[in-house]
Amino acid sequence: MIKHIVMIKLKKFDSEEEKQSVADNLRGKLEHLVDTIADLHSMEVGMNIVNRPSAYDLVLTAKFDDLKGLDRYRQHMDHIEVLNYLFENTDKTAVVDYEV
Residue 6, SS3? Predict the structure, then answer.
């Protein structure tokens, strides 16, 4: 089994309400991928609850059978659509993939 972990730091927004709206939207889009991508066995999205300068805003943990499944997920059109939204609204991301 492969775990795919992504930490997401959103860009600066004019208000906390706007930032929260984008975070909620992104969370919904990510969680919906479980319904549309067969290789994606589970997706957990957590939103940061502590405000520190070094903190990221969201983290996702996804599970796949193997690296081939992770690669198919990365190339899936629904995932690419979410990535486009993510890239429009993020400052930076960090990714770790590992075998369980």
Answer: strand
Q: Contact 64/39 with Cβ under 8 angstroms?
A: yes
Report d(CA 39, CA 18) in Å as an integer. 32
Q: Which domain holds residue 94?
A: 2-99
Q: What is the pLDDT of residues 66-97, one digit of tens each?
A: 999 999 999 999 999 999 999 999 999 999 99
Those residues whose C-beta lies under 8 Å from the C-beta of residue 81, and which sit 6 or more positions away, are 29
Q: Rounded to an integer, what distance in angstroms lies between the CA atom of residue 87 and that of residue 26?
A: 11
User: Which pTM was predicted?
Assistant: 0.91
The CA distance from 16 to 37, in Å, is 32
Give me the number of domains the chain comprises: 1
Summarize pLDDT for 16-45 with one digit per residue, the tens: 999 999 999 999 999 999 999 999 999 999
Residue 21's CATH number = 3.30.70.100
